[in-house]
Amino acid sequence: MQALLAWFARNARDLPWRRTRDPYAIWISEIMLQQTQVKTVIAYWQRWMAALPDVQTFAQADSARIHKLWEGLGYYSRVRNAHAAARIIVEEHGGKFPTTFDEVLALPGVGRYTAGAICSIACNLPTPILDGNVIRVVSRVFGVAGDPRAKETNGRLWELAGELVLTAEKIQSGERNCGRLNEALMELGALVCAPVEPRCGLCPLHRQCFARRKGRVGEFPRPKKVAPPVSRRYVAFLAKKNGRFLVRQRPAGAVNAHLWEFPNEEISPSEKRPRTAVKDFVLTNSKPVLRVRHSITRYRILVEAFPAELPATAGSRKAPGVWRTPAQLDRLAFTSAHRKILAAAVQSMPRLGRKINRPE
Fold first, then answer.
1. What is the residue-level pLDDT of the chain in tens, covering all 360 positions?
2. Domain range summary for the chain, segments of one domain joined by +
3. Please, what is the Cα angle at 247 between 244 and 249, to 5 degrees?
4. Which of 74, 183, 275, 300 is most buried, most CB within 10 Å of its CB?
5. In 3D, which of 233, 232, 223, 227 has the Cα closest to residue 298?
6. Fold of 2-219
7. Are 286 and 359 spatial neighbours (Cβ–Cβ below 8 Å)?
8. What SS3 state is found at 324?
9. In this structure, what are the phi and psi dihedrals at residue 141, rounded to the nearest 5 degrees?
10. CA distance 294 to 301
11. Which residues are catalytic?
12. What's the whole-model pTM score?
């Protein structure tokens, strides 16, 4: 493992959370890095740490503020779980981030991998980690066949990761070898031991690697079955009145809970064009202001935003949302797709109030 640590010392990326051993800062980085690429997280982490530099300020922040700071990162249950964990740390640990594996693991939104990463990197404890990158490295080096998500195979991988970090603990030279060993395994998987076309000639573990010696690198770990993509399509309604747009907040418990969006409705992906009158709205133009395509897991989503108005028959019925100015909307946390729609809507504001070319 000394060769791996030496490789890491020479090749590690200069990431801002690697310049600190503050467990709070490392925790925030690990939560953000779940399901999100490093290059995206950097700016978010720096902005977060400037706004909420410690667990006390995080715990005291309101829901609107933490969602705004997280806006665009997706998987918003992460930040809500982290918020709950921050309050537990303040209430039950006196505002000091816990430093034992069991206490960290007990926090909302923290699993075995995240607890291991925090405890090893911040506290130099010999706690193993196992994320996608580490699974790939360990599977190839030790020739662990089988589905890495299956109980027996996964248990074997955790066992090997534990042996590796214990080996690092026994190395006398240098400092904080446990955390560095775990970071090195992640970095090796990210930079060298790639899923496709790994750079085996640059790997510090190439002599020990079972998969390389046997010419079977592509077989480890066993590829997971990919579910076929599912198309979904939504119509978003851009209703404007007196310089204000109609928006709504997603309810607790829903996907993207607490975030803001324009009222919208799902329609069939095969429908050629939306109907003139849809639910609570009447479209005032047959052409969308914007089309936004994005993916969430296996779903391929198209959102089309149309100028609209409330029907005359609505009378005194309460509008399906609240009216807000562009300046007020800019302070709210929107889903990524609806943030793009907002920008397009504000840009086209002079045109949205006119009824033109109403579709038949």
1. 899 999 999 999 999 999 999 999 999 999 999 999 999 999 999 999 999 999 999 999 999 999 999 999 999 999 999 999 999 999 999 999 999 999 999 999 999 999 999 999 999 999 999 999 999 999 999 999 999 999 999 999 999 999 999 998 888 665 679 999 999 999 999 999 999 999 999 999 999 999 999 999 999 999 888 889 999 999 999 999 999 999 999 999 999 999 999 999 999 999 887 776 566 899 998 899 999 999 998 999 999 999 999 987 765 678 899 999 999 999 999 999 999 999 999 988 765 544 433 332
2. 2-219, 230-352
3. 145
4. 183
5. 227
6. Endonuclease III; domain 1 (1.10.340)
7. yes
8. strand
9. -65, -40
10. 5
11. 30
12. 0.91
Beta strands in the chain (DSSP E): 230-241, 244-249, 260-261, 264-267, 277-278, 281-283, 290-296, 299-309, 322-324
The values of phi and psi at residue 320, to 5°, are: -80, 60
Structure tokens, 19: 């310049």
Tokens of 181: 């060993």
Judged on CB neighbours under 10 Å (0-12, 13-18, 19+), 319 is middle
Cα–Cα distance, 58 to 130 (Å, whole number):
27
CA–CA separation, 169 and 164 (whole Å): 9
Q: Which CATH superfamily is domain 230-352 in?
A: Nucleoside Triphosphate Pyrophosphohydrolase (3.90.79.10)
C-alpha torsion 163→164→170→175, nearest 10: -140
User: For residue 94, which amino acid is it?
Assistant: G
Task: Report the alpha-carbon distance of residue 100 to residue 208 in Å, rounded.
Answer: 33
- Token output for 110: 């923290």
Q: Output the six-digit token pair for 290.
A: 């914007």
Spell out the residues 6+ positions from residue 88 whose beta carbon is closer than 8 angstroms to its own.
107, 108
From first CA to last CA, the distance across the chain in angstroms is: 71
How far is C-alpha 114 from the geometric centre of its chain's CA atoms? 14
Residue 325 and residue 327: Cα distance in Å, rounded? 5
Length of the chain: 360
Residue 317 corresponds to which amino acid? R
